[in-house]
Amino acid sequence: MDNCRHELIDHQHIANIIDQYGCFIVYVEEDAYLPGFAYTIGLFQKYDHPEIICFGLPSEVSGSLLNDACEQISSGQIFTAHSHYSEFLKDFAIQFLPVHKSSYADYLGTGSNYYHHTDFPVLQLVWPDKQSLFPWESEFNPHWKFRQPLLDRNFDFKFYEERNVAVFTTSQVLEGQPIRFVYHNEDGAWQFHSDQEPSLADAKLVSLEEIVRMDPTVNVLFQLLPGEAAWRNEVGEEWAWE
């Protein structure tokens, strides 16, 4: 299943912007479920520096941060993972994390299309809450937890919910029948079924983590919006969705 949030942009247009400004910035707007993000294309090509991606900020803010980073990189700055940098946000330091290649298909499709491969490094710019705490710290603002997926970890669980959130399934799925129909309800609830119209008598509640553990292939549906559905004939086939 292709990531429907990847934008098709003319290769030559991207190259022209890189030549003129040092990098091209891809913006993906937030929606009712998924956070917005922005990332660079061209830092690796022009300066042999990792590309940079940033989540959860208004496009004008993320664009300003990425342009600031590009300007510093063009002057010789090299940003490294797990170091604090105070020159981006007033009164707050940011950090960078190394982005694992398992996240490229989810978030960096336009960049991968431009390079024609995924053999380029990427850093994630991570911002703190108002107490200068980062998302991996226990007291981080819980209301902001899912505004920045951390792309250096949690490869086994990509959903924007807690692992223990309750989801609907059936006794047939728990007994080993394949998950072939997935619904993300308008109210945010998830359903994972082997039949398109399961019997209410067979309904079960389990944790989302248990579903992902039983069938890791459902992980690719983490961007399914409320009100959308996905289906396939058998495990191993690509999901279709609407």
Describe this structure in words.
The chain is an alpha+beta fold and 242 residues long. The protein has two domains: 11-147, no CATH class; 166-241, no CATH class. It is 22% helix and 24% strand. The protein has a six-stranded mixed β-sheet with strand order 1-2-3-6-5-4, with helices on both faces. β8 (181-184) and β9 (190-193) form a beta hairpin. The protein is globular and about 65 Å long. The termini are close together.
Q: In angstroms, what separates the terminal alpha carbons? A: 12 Å
Please state the CA-atom Rg, rounded to the nearest Å.
20 Å
Q: Enumerate how many helices there are, as a single number.
A: 7
- Tell me, briefly, the overall form: globular
Number of structural domains: 2
Give the oligomer, counting copies of the same chain as homo and different chains as hetero.
Answer: single chain
List keywords for this structure.
242 residues; alpha+beta; 12 strands
Give a short synopsis of this structure.
With 242 residues, the protein is an alpha+beta fold.
Layout: helices, strands, pairs:
Blueprint: H1 11-21, E1 24-28, E2 37-41, H2 43-47, E3 51-55, H3 59-74, E4 84-89, E5 92-98, H4 104-107, H5 109-115, E6 122-126, E7 166-170, H6 171-174, E8 181-184, E9 190-193, E10 203-207, H7 208-214, E11 228-231, E12 240-241
